[in-house]
Amino acid sequence: MEKHTEGIHHITAFVKNAQKNVDFYAGILGLRLVKKTINFDAPEVYHLYFGNESGRPGTVITFFPYELNRKGRIGGGQVGITTYIVPLGALDFWKDRLESFHVPYSLKTRFNENYLTFSDQDGLQLEIVEREEGDLSQWSFGGVSIDKAIKGFGGAVLFSTAPEKTMNVLEQVLGLQKVNQEGDFIRYKSTGSIGNVIDVNIAAMEWGISGAGTVHHIVWRAKDDEDHASWRTHVQEHGLQPTPIIDRQYFNAIYFREEGGILFEIATDPPGFAVDEQSDVLGEKLMLPEWFEAERAEIEKGLSPIQVRVMESDK
């Protein structure tokens, strides 16, 4: 069986403070908080989703903010850098914006593309690159207009403890195509127009330490439930050990750890974030799956209040 994922569905990371997380990704980066819910496996912790206007697969980064999270260390077995794409000509806007919010950045070149590299409040490594491909986001917020807004993921840079094994999974399991090699990196591309470029650090890296400022897992796209079930069989046939299919309310998921140490998930595109609230009010209310509704009062009591707000520099 030959299969090809369109690319990244979402990326999930650890941070400490929920309000600082909202201020950075919504207030500074201009993403939409499309879902405010909880970690279904640890309901005392928020699970916050940020993306384009609808939270389309390929645009969404999610977080488990928890003040008691230890500080992590980025390294092998992790997504090392999360890449965002913006429209052509928008990079200078983002340089100025980061400067206005006192976010340090540097400029790097990889595969003849110019990257603006920086970190969030917990040290998660991010970068912005201009590309023509990918639909414009229709979400504008604060000082970020649609013509400058982040479209979604450009892709990611994977840090592996066993790069050859990780690259084998990208090619033989996920169906990505090797397209280039330069310096320390090999580049792969998927079939989609967004979240479709994956760079792998060629050198094996020392294990990272999970915690605030690190990515927990990267998620790949499945078209629907039928395709998703087929993906689970496909992963098993390649000697990997996927979990049973798990209902995550907004998608179904399977998880497996590839031999380079990175936790992979495959998730369905549907049903999406409008399954339990209207599109025009996404992210405004704490949404719980029905099996947690009886505990709503206790859960809300334990979560710190958060709000999406226009930052002072944008007023």
UniProtKB/TrEMBL annotation:
Gene3D superfamilies: 2,3-Dihydroxybiphenyl 1,2-Dioxygenase, domain 1. The keyword DNA-binding does not apply. InterPro entries: Extradiol_RC_dioxygenase (IPR052537), Glyas_Bleomycin-R_OHBP_Dase (IPR029068), Glyas_Fos-R_dOase_dom (IPR004360), VOC_core (IPR037523). Keywords: Dioxygenase, Oxidoreductase. Pfam families: Glyoxalase. CDD domains: PcpA_C_like. This is Ring-cleaving dioxygenase. One of its GO terms (molecular function) is dioxygenase activity. Residues 7-131, 152-269 form the VOC domain. The keyword Oxidoreductase applies. It comes from Paenibacillus anseongense.
